[in-house]
Write a structure and sequence with these properties.
Blueprint: E1 2-5, E2 11-17, E3 29-34, H1 45-53, E4 57-61, H2 85-101, E5 106-111, H3 114-123, E6 130-133, E7 138-140, E8 152-154, H4 157-165
Parallel strand pairs: 3-4, 3-5, 5-8, 6-8
Antiparallel strand pairs: 1-2, 2-4, 6-7
């Protein structure tokens, strides 16, 4: 586990895993896992292990106000934030850290519930280059509009289907 400072000085708890198996040195990219409301990194260990076994590095974090990341009010029980835009700062912090670690390849954004909503909102920003996907379509914007050196891709249904339909582990 590592502790990262967002631009507004909020401390986020994050964790990073390297791709497993034969893919370790030639990873397919990095999965940024965005959890749902009131969730925390440990809940996703089986998903993280699966992505690593498929040849991806994985990055996960606790959103501000959740898990072991900073709380914005004294009472630790509510998952309070001042604005949904705060989650965009959390995402920016994680994307910058993935880039800083220089593992190469594309960054695949995977979100559950509220985390998925925050990712979609991030992708809607004009400066973000992203692929979006569903069962019937794949689109991609020009990579020249993305301010960071790597490109982000969101694959909603295809990755989920591959993870859940493989009964061999």
């Amino acid at each position: 586990m590592v502790w990262l400072k967002a631009a507004d000085e909020v401390t986020l708890r994050a964790a990073f895993w390297r791709a497993g198996g034969e893919e370790r040195d030639a990873a397919r990219g990095t999965v940024l896992l965005a959890t749902g409301r009131s969730e925390f990194i440990e809940k996703y260990y089986p998903v993280i292990a699966r992505f690593a076994s498929l040849g991806f590095h994985v990055a996960a974090f606790d959103w501000r106000g959740q898990g072991l990341s900073d709380r914005l009010i004294e009472d630790r029980l509510p998952g309070y934030i001042d604005s949904f835009e705060s989650y965009q700062r959390d995402l920016d912090t994680m994307l910058a850290e993935i880039d800083r670690r220089g593992r190469g390849g594309k960054t695949v954004l995977v979100g559950h519930s509220m985390g998925g909503c925050a990712l979609i909102r991030r992708l809607a920003l004009p400066e973000c280059c992203a692929g979006t996907g569903s069962n019937s379509m794949r689109t991609e914007r020009s990579p020249h509009s993305w301010p960071l050196p790597h490109r982000c891709h969101l694959k909603c249904c295809g990755t989920q289907a591959r993870l859940s339909n493989n009964s061999n582990g």
